[in-house]
């Protein structure tokens, strides 16, 4: 009876909750610089271009670490890799509170990018052996909704700490919170169900996990060519999505203050409002995608339809925002645009699981490299175009164009063409030809 009571909450859902907390904290650490940006610029005398450089410094190592972090998670397991990465980004956040120059700010943002760069691909890899196929969209949706919730609470949270103590104290407190999460993760997470004493045979069957599968997967050589072939289009769509997301994460407070005239008191509310809409969008995108799959059994329809509707809807709301005469109307258009944009996010993160299977860490890193590259270019390009034109209209128009391109490209993503299917066809072809096929382990051959 005691064991039955304990199992009312499934182990995979406890792990999902811990991962939600990670996404929440990591996003606060990521976007707090945007909220503190106007105060940092005033204290250090930075130009818009210099502030854009500080914003974008995070994105360069973030992009580089996507594939590296995902591959490390595939090879050494997500528990070890995410522990190390969270220690790095927690320490970087803490140290930012002691920065005294633009050089130190940039350096700490680079360290933060290294730590967080591999975190989401590693988390995606963690779900490979913990979430059944029909729950993957929900898992990616709920975790990323917590990321957006983190972004939404950052303005009032950071501004409250700033008002009480200062912007430096905000970074110090957030760094401590990140390091505390690492301790929790170490106690709760295991790489697979067969390593967790709490998991029952019934839950293992629900997940669809086969004993020893995680350990066997580590012996497989990474099929880089197949992964690139299957994931490049997803990466491109993620770039188009990421361009506008970076605008929200970096320039939204400055846009509302400088272009729409909101004071500091209203800035927290109207910066948080679009990001709160993203919380709802992330959750709905994953839930609706899973629902379509259950009803139709057509995985491609379940994923691609959400991508097209999400990016198309975001475009339809962003265009009228650019010339909206009322600041309040602009905020509502931005909110609606971000809601639709975030519907696509859980699907983008589910595609590496659908397409790459046991290589989901590496594939997730490939996919999110598009987001990282967008982060390199978008904040700096935004700052440059603002200085050149004296207006936010041109950079927002470019963002709208990329949404249109991304929605069109999403039509050609095919979830039925998986890496594992490619490997199975090659193995069958070798067997038909009577050629020994390499099974992926050290000296592990079969006919």
* Low-confidence regions: 1-6, 438-447
> At the fourth CATH level, what is the homologous superfamily?
MFS general substrate transporter like domains
Q: What is the domain tally?
A: 1
Q: Which CATH C-level class is it?
A: Mainly Alpha
Largest sheet: 2 strands, antiparallel
The gross shape turns out to be globular
Mean pLDDT: 83
CATH architecture: Up-down Bundle
Please give the order of strands in the largest beta sheet: 1-2
The amount of beta strand, in percent, is under 5%
Summarize the helix and strand pattern as letters.
HHHHHHHHHHHHHHHHHHHHEE
Number of strands: 2
Our count of helices gives: 20
Percent helix range: over 70%
The SS-based structural class is mainly alpha
* CATH fold label: Growth Hormone, Chain: A
Radius of gyration: 22 Å
Q: How far apart are the first and last residues' alpha carbons, in Å?
A: 49 Å
Protein name: Major facilitator superfamily MFS_1
InterPro entries: MFS, MFS_dom, MFS_Na/Anion_cotransporter, MFS_trans_sf, Sugar_P_transporter
Domain Major facilitator superfamily (MFS) profile: 15-418
GO cellular component, one term: plasma membrane
For this entry, give a set of tags.
447 residues; 20 helices; disordered C terminus; mainly alpha; Growth Hormone, Chain: A; 80% helix; disordered N terminus; single chain; MFS_Na/Anion_cotransporter; two-stranded antiparallel sheet
């Amino acid at each position: 009876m005691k064991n039955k009571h304990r199992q009312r909450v499934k182990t995979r859902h406890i792990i999902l909750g811990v991962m939600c907390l990670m996404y929440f904290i990591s996003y606060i650490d990521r976007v707090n610089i945007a909220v503190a940006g106007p105060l940092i610029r005033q204290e250090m005398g930075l130009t818009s271009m210099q502030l854009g450089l500080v914003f974008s410094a995070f994105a360069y190592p973030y992009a580089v670490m996507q594939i590296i972090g995902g591959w490390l998670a595939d090879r050494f397991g997500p528990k070890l890799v995410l522990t190390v990465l969270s220690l790095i980004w927690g320490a970087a956040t803490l140290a930012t509170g002691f920065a005294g120059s633009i050089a130190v700010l940039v350096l700490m943002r680079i360290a933060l990018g290294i730590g967080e760069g591999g975190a989401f691909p590693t988390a995606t890899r963690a779900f490979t052996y913990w979430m059944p196929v029909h729950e993957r969209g929900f898992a990616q949706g709920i975790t990323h909704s917590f990321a957006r919730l983190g972004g939404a609470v950052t303005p009032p949270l950071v501004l409250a700490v700033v008002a009480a103590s200062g912007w430096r104290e905000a970074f110090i407190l957030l760094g401590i919170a990140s390091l505390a999460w690492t301790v929790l993760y170490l106690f709760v997470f295991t790489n697979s169900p067969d390593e967790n004493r709490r998991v029952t045979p019934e839950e293992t069957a629900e997940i669809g996990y086969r004993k020893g599968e995680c350990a066997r997967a580590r012996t497989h050589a990474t099929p880089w060519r197949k992964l690139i072939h299957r994931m490049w289009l997803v990466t491109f769509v993620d770039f188009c999505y990421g361009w506008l997301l970076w605008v929200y994460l970096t320039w939204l407070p400055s846009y509302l203050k400088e272009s729409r005239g909101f004071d500091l008191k209203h800035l927290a509310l109207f910066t948080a409002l679009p990001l709160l809409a993203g919380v709802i969008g992330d959750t709905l995108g994953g839930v609706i995608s899973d629902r379509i799959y259950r009803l139709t059994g057509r995985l491609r329809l379940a994923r691609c339809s959400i991508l097209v509707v999400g990016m198309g809807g975001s475009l339809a709301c962003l265009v009228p925002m650019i010339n909206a005469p009322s600041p309040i109307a602009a905020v509502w258009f931005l909110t609606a645009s971000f809601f639709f944009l975030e519907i696509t996010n859980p699907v983008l993160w589910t595609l590496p699981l659908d397409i790459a299977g046991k290589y989901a860490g590496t594939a997730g890193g490939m996919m999110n490299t598009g987001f990282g590259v967008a982060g390199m270019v978008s904040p700096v390009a935004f700052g440059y175009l603002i200085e050149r034109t004296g207006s936010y209209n041109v950079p927002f128009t470019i963002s709208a164009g990329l949404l249109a391109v991304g929605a069109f490209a999403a039509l050609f993503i095919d979830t039925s063409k998986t890496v594992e299917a490619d490997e199975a066809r090659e193995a069958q072809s070798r067997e038909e030809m009577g050629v020994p096929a390499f099974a992926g382990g050290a000296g592990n051959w079969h006919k």
